[in-house]
Each structure stands twice: as C-alpha cells, then as structure tokens.
Amino acid sequence: MAHPEITMSDDTIHNPKEPRHFMRAKIVPRTVRVRHGGKVIAESNNVLRVTELEKDILDPVFYFPKEDIFIPLFPLDGKTSHCPLKGDASYFAVDDKGETIAWAYEAAFELAKVINGRIAFFPDHVVIEEVGASS
C-alpha cells in the first residue's frame, strides 16, 4: 500500500531517508535536576526535551548542557550506537565500575546539531525531576 506524502510540523527534525522518523526538541520551561545515589549530579534551566517518533513514540529524553553536569563522567571505550536521525552516540559511567548512566551525540548529524554538546541520562539509573520555573 502506497503512503501519501507525509507532512510534519515545521519545527521537527526529520530523517531524510525515512520521513516517518522524526524528533522535536524544545527547551524545558523549568529547572531540571538529575540525582544519582541521592546526590544532585546535574541541574539546569537550559535543558532540551527531545521527543522522537521511530517505529513507536519514544519516551521523552532530557539533554543537559555539559557545563551543567556537576560530576566527572567517564567515557566507556568501545561502547557506541548509531541512530539514522542523530548520528553516533558515545556512553558514560559515573564511576570506574562502568555502570552506564548517560550518553551523548558528540558530533550529531547537521540536521540534529541542536543536541551537540549535551548529555542525556538513562531514567532507570537516575532520578530526573522538573523542579520549578526557570529563571
């Protein structure tokens, strides 16, 4: 069955090879905080909420500016993944035990460059909370 031409909102980022794969990135209008082991490890009022539609609607992901991460994150050598919309992701641990808690697209594709220089956290390894109005 042929699909009619798909038209999406102007403020979404589309995979040029698959127009049904797209994402929308918007600044969260509140401060967002990340806790790990009871400690605040990131807090920012400049967080992007990225919602992506792939084969399904994915849970929103919060991307923090690197300068708003309060602890060092350790790169996990050899652990990468590829997204046809965003590019190649690298992964990070909070300590030398190697528990993967975050990822980043250090060189996202040009169409997804809005997430360059930002870190996202796995919500099943940290607590992410929106805590109030941004300044």
From TrEMBL:
Residues 32-123 form the DUF427 domain. Pfam families: NTP_transf_9. It comes from the Bacteria. Gene3D superfamilies: Domain of unknown function (DUF427). Signal peptide: none annotated. Coiled coil: none annotated. This is DUF427 domain-containing protein. The lineage of its organism: Bacteria, Pseudomonadati, Pseudomonadota, Gammaproteobacteria, Cellvibrionales.
